Amino acid sequence: MRSILAPAAVVAQLALCAAATPCKPASLNGTASAWLKAYPGSARKDVDVVVVGGGSAGSNAAIHLYDAGLDILLIEAKPQLGGMVDSYTNPETGNVFDFGVATYTNLTGTEAYFERLGLSTKIPTFATTVPYYADFTTGETVAFEAPDLVPEFAALAAYYEIAKNYSELFMPSYANWPAPDEIPEDLLLPFGEFAAKYELNDTMLLLWAGIGAGLADMLSIPTIFMMQTFGPQTAGVFLGNTVQFVPESGRNQDIYDSVTSILGDAVMVNSKVTKSVRLPDNGGAALLVQDQVTGSYTVVTAKRLVIAFEPTSDNTAPFGLDAQETAVFNKGTWSIVHTGIVSHPSLPDEALIYNLPPTAVNGNDFAFPEPPFVDFFQYMGDDLYQVIVVGWEGFSIDDAQTMAQEALQNLASSGTINATDGVDLTIKSWSNHGPMDMRTSREELEGGFIQDLYALQGHRSTYWTGAAFSSQLSTYLWYYNLEYLVPLVVDSL
Ligand SMILES: Cc1cc2nc3c(=O)[nH]c(=O)nc-3n(C[C@H](O)[C@H](O)[C@H](O)COP(=O)(O)OP(=O)(O)OC[C@H]3O[C@@H](n4cnc5c(N)ncnc54)[C@H](O)[C@@H]3O)c2cc1C
Ligand SMILES: *[C@@H]1O[C@H](CO)[C@@H](O)[C@H](O)[C@H]1NC(C)=O
Ligand SMILES: *[C@@H]1O[C@H](CO)[C@@H](O)[C@H](O)[C@H]1NC(C)=O
Ligand SMILES: *[C@@H]1O[C@H](CO)[C@@H](O)[C@H](O)[C@H]1NC(C)=O
Ligand SMILES: *[C@@H]1O[C@H](CO)[C@@H](O)[C@H](O)[C@H]1NC(C)=O
Ligand SMILES: *[C@@H]1O[C@H](CO)[C@@H](O)[C@H](O)[C@H]1NC(C)=O
Asked: Where in this chain does the entry annotate a coiled-coil region (predicted)?
C-alpha cells in the first residue's frame, strides 16, 4: 500500500510549493529525497545544468555548456538526438537521403561547431528535378507560369537585402528587438502585403515551396515570422552569396551521433520529464525523469534548467507553467509539418510536383493551397521521392499519410501522372516534425509579445532555446546559443 499512497502524498505536498502561492520554497534536496522515497530504485543525478530536448538547439547548447566545464545532463524523449533530422539509408543501394533537415547555412560559429564535433564538411548536392504544377485536391494540371531564373533571383535578391537590413533586430536573438511602438511596419505587415509592396512576385514559389509552406499560412502571418523561418542567410544560399554545408558523409544524423559520443553518460534518450519543481531566483530545479523503455526513474537536480523544445501546452505540461509563462505561450500558434520518403511507379522520373490551387494562373504568384495540404512530391534519387504535408496542431500521421495517398490517386485519376491501378504509395520512412514555426498576431507583437517572451529567461531557474525563441533554422539556433543563451546561463551561475 505504501508504494501507492506515498507518491500522491508527496506530490500534493510539492504542488503547494511549486504553485505561485506564498510558501516557503521547497528545498531541491528535500524534493529529491521525497521522490527517491516515493519511487524506490530511482537513480539520482545532481548537475549544474539540465537541458531538456535534444534537437538542434538543445544538443548544441549542451555541447557549449559541457565545454564550459559544467556538469550537464541532456534529456531527449526520442530514442536518439537530432530532432528534425531524418537520415534515411536506402537498404537496396546504401545511399543516404536526408528528408528532414537538408543543409546547414554558414553563420558565426557554424564551422567551429562542425570542427568541435570532429566532422569534416562538404557542399551538398541535390538531384536535379523537372517541375510539374497540379491541384492535388483534383489532380488537374495547373497552368502556372513559372518565372524565368533571372527575375526570380532578382526578386529573391530584393528580399535578401530587406531581410538583411532588419536582421540585427532578430538575429542571433531578439535582444535588440524594438519597443512595441517602434517595430518597423514592414515586419508587422502580413507577408502577402509585404511581398506585394516589394514586388516579390517572381520569387514567391521559391519562398513557399521549400520553407514558407511550413508556416501553413505564409501570406497572412506577420513578416517577422517569415524572416524568422526563411532568413536572409537562406536567401543568400540560393543567391550563391554564402556557402552551405553537410557532413562529409552526407548523413546529417552524424552531427547528433557525434554529440552523443562526446557527451556520453550525460545524454539520456527515451526519457521524459514527468514532474518538476522550479524555484525562483535561480534556486534551481528538480526533475523526475522516466525512461520510456525500462520504466525506471531518475531524480535530477540542477542549478539551471534549459528548455529546448517547442513550448506547446502538451510539451510543457510536466513543467507546471505559472501564470506569467502561460500568458505568453497561450498567444502562440503552431503549424505541424510531416515529411516522408515514398516511392511509386507512377511518379514521373526526376519530378518535382508542386501543389497549387487552380487560381495560380494568369500571372497570379500569390495563390497557395489552404491548410492542411500536401506541399510537393520531390524526386531525391534511387526512385525515391520526398513528400511534405502541412497542417495545424493535432494533424496526425494518419491524417497526413491519408492526404498524401489521396493526392497521388487524384493525380493519377485526372491523368496528370500514369494510372496507379489502385496501388498506394510505398512509405519507406515517415517523420512527424510536430509543432513548429510558433507565431502570434500583429496585435500581440504590438502588445509586447517578444518582450514578454524574453522576460521568461531566468524566470524560475529556467532558460529557453529552440526555434520559438530564435529562428526555425539549425545554424541560426547555434548562433543564438553561442552569442546569447549560453553566456546568459553561464554568467548566471
Ligand atoms: C522538412 C523540414 C526540413 C528542414 N530543413 C532544414 C534545413 O535544411 N536546414 C535547417 O537549418 N533547418 C531545417 N529545418 C528546420 C530545423 O530542423 C528546425 O528549425 C530545428 O530543428 C529546430 O530545432 P529545435 O531544437 O528548436 O527543435 P527540434 O529539432 O524539434 O528539437 C526538439 C527536441 O525536443 C524533443 N522533445 C520535445 N518535447 C520533449 C519533452 N517534453 N521532453 C524531452 N524531449 C522533448 C524532441 O523529440 C526533439 O528531439 C527543416 C524543418 C523541416 C520540418
Ligand atoms: C541531501 O540529502 C541527503 C540525504 O537526505 C544528504 O545526505 C545530503 O547531504 C544532502 N545534500 C545537501 C547538499 O544538502
Ligand atoms: C563562414 O562564415 C564565417 C563567419 O561569417 C566566415 O568567417 C567564414 O569565412 C565562412 N566560411 C566560408 C567557407 O565561407
Ligand atoms: C537598407 O538600409 C539602408 C540604410 O538604412 C537604406 O539606405 C536602404 O535603402 C535599405 N535597403 C533596403 C532594401 O531596404
Ligand atoms: C504582383 O502581385 C500583386 C499581387 O497579386 C499584383 O497586384 C501585381 O500586379 C503583381 N505584379 C506584377 C508585376 O505582376
Ligand atoms: C507512363 O506510361 C508510359 C506508357 O506505358 C511509359 O512509357 C512511361 O514510362 C510511364 N511513366 C512513368 C513515370 O511511369
From this structure: none
